[in-house]
Write a structure and sequence with these properties.
- This protein is of the alpha/beta class.
- 44% of the residues lie in helices and 20% in strands.
- A six-stranded parallel beta sheet has the order 2-1-3-4-5-11, with helices on both faces. Strands 7-6-8-9-10-12 form a six-stranded mixed beta sheet, with helices on both faces.
- α6 packs parallel to α7 and α8 runs parallel beside α9.
- It is globular, with a radius of gyration of 21 Å.
Length: 331
Amino acid sequence: MLNRRQFTVAAVLAGLFPIWALRAQTAKRIAALFAGRIDDRGFMEAGYKGLAAAKDQFGAEISWADGVKPERPLLEEVLRKLAADKPALVVAHGGQNNDAARTVAGEFPDVSFVVTQGNVTGANLASYEVLQEESAFLAGMLAGFTTRTGTVGHMSGIRVVPGLKGRAAFANGVAFAAPNVKLLTNFSGNQDDSALSKKVALAMADAGADIIFTMLNAGRTGAIEACRERKIAQIGNVGDWVATTPDVFVASAIADSGLAVLAACEDMMQGKFQPGTIKKVGLSRPAAVRLSTGPGVPQAVRERLDQAAADIVSGKLAVSTQWEGPEFANP
């Protein structure tokens, strides 16, 4: 028995099926790599939802690999396997794939590649980036305006470019709102280790932080537990944590990376994909990037945040993604 793809190839070779039909079928196939779990309630899950939306909205035939450790040799190995099947597009979800995608794209010139939240380009390679630094800046402003202790925290896992940019934007947002507020910032080394995240969050709370901005994936669960125990607030990212966990989250710096995956798939399906480019989406598209705030945020603070968002969109206020300062060590 032949599967559909094998039957199509056999039919072309036998002269029973026009070769353009094989090309049309190939053009529908999109493969994706997720360097983490697609059920992490964070970045990877958002990306997977974008891939699934491409199937529902545009009829793409999708496949994926997940649970891959964010180590370059492993990422390259999986990308090669995905590309060897000759899909129209291979999506590497996350900036941790920058180097691996650049290498593997060069080995498969007849396959198109995308890195989401990336900054690499090539003859068959593009990056699609949701500007999470714009909502992270607003999150920093909110933390600066509303902290009662004068100390706020930031937590992330691995040091990838989007994470560093998000941390910098948050730090600069805090300073913009309240220059004297102290910032505790930590990259623990793992996005998904809930026990480690809980230890870091507890240590930050003990050091005086009453609001923590978490840029984590599955590891966020531990930070939530710590915030509940210490009765402090949290600001989430990627999705709307205010809607799902309102007892802990006062706000969420939404940056739906799944829309970057969906946009790349849409462009490929519609013949609009442009290699050699970096496509960016920010606060001007609120469905992708915005700050969601809970009912406890004072109206005066909301108004200042709304004005800042408008100024960012208009170009009046620039969000810096550069920051240098001391870091909070793992406990």
